[in-house]
Amino acid sequence: MTTAAGNEIEQQKRAAAEAAAQLVEDGARVGLGTGTTVAYLLPALAARRLRLRCVATSPRTEAIARELGLAVEPFTALDELDIAIDGADQIAPDGWLVKGGGGAHLREKIVAAAARRFVVIASADKPVARLRPPVPLELAAFGLAATLRELADARLREAASSPDGGVLADLHTSFEAPQELVARLDAIPGVLAHGLFPPALVTDVLIAGPAGVEHRRPGLH
Ligand code: 5RP
After folding, report:
1. Do 114 and 141 belong together in one domain?
2. Which residue range(s) make up the domain with 143?
3. 97 lies in the same domain as 204
4. 64 and 150, same structural domain?
5. Within 13 Å and on the Cβ side, how many CA atoms surround 20?
6. pLDDT digits (tens, 9 = 90+) for 82-129
7. Please, what is the Cα angle at 185 between 192 and 180, to 5 degrees?
8. Quick one: which atom of ligand 1 is closest to the CA of 86?
9. Are the C-beta atoms of 126 and 207 separated by less than 8 Å?
């Protein structure tokens, strides 16, 4: 990628993140995602000086958010969030997502599912005609060899365990319909989480491009 193209992508990430920050209301309980696009969200949110209760999907996000003065609490007492905002690796036209490039997909999915509104923020390189591998996985360390036997095309990441002790991997199996792969993965007990997020989780997608920020609403709730 040329420097000019790279700069354009960074500007798009910032534009999507700043648009999402405007959707947050004073007093909201907010889920903070993980990644380079969310890195633009955090200062934009902090600059609004709202009274917020935030939960973070990774130690990285938590540290940056705290440094910016956002109030982050453990995700134990809150039983619902008003809004969660996060990036994505791939966005299909029907609203299916692949997430987990940063290895935070277990916590990201828990936070998205707890949010009344889940807003995805992305640059123009994230929409795809159809989802493709790899699909990020988080696997239980217990019985790892047996789980990997079921997942012939999974490759372990050279990365530390997740904050919840899970082993990070990527599944390189090609697939047609995401829901069929979801059914297969959900049937393997050692798969703690996968990076396929269904449209029913997603209420808003903000995609920034040369012409501005496009606002899609694929969600069913
Ligand atoms: C982390 C994620 C990220 O949201 C996803 O990988 C997109 O990251 P970025 O904004 O850096 O492109 O799912 O687990």
Report:
1. no
2. 135-195
3. yes
4. no
5. 36
6. 999 999 999 999 999 999 999 999 999 999 999 999 999 999 999 999
7. 145
8. 4
9. yes
Q: Number of structural domains, the chain?
A: 2
Q: 53-56 and 29-32: which strand pairing? A: parallel
**Distance between Cα 90 and ligand 1 center (Å):** 9
Same domain, 89 and 7: yes
In angstroms, the CA 89 to CA 103 distance is 11
Helix (H) or strand (E) holding 168: strand 167-171
My answer on whether 83 and 39 are in the same domain is yes
Answer whether residue 217 is part of any domain: no
Q: Which two tokens stand for residue 146?
A: 């047996």
Measured in angstroms, how far is the CA atom of residue 10 from the centroid of ligand 1?
Answer: 13
Evaluate whether residue 16 is within a structural domain.
yes
At CA 120, angle to CA 114 and CA 122, rounded to 5?
160
Ligand 1: atom nearest CA of 101 is 6
Measure 145 CA to ligand 1 centroid, in angstroms: 27
Whether the per-residue pLDDT at 2 is higher than 70: the answer is: no
Helix (H) / strand (E) element for 82: namely strand 81-86
Q: Which residues contact 168 (CB under 8 A, 6 or more apart)?
A: 103, 136, 137, 138, 139, 156, 157, 159, 161, 162
**Cβ-based neighbours of 39, under 8 Å, separated by 6 or more:** 64
- pTM of the entire predicted model: 0.96
Give the HSE-up count for residue 104: Cα atoms under 13 Å, Cβ half-sphere.
23
Residues 163 and 202 both lie in one domain: no
Whether 138 is catalytic: no
Residue bearing the bigger pLDDT, 91 or 220: 91
Quote the tokens at residue 25. Answer: 């209301």
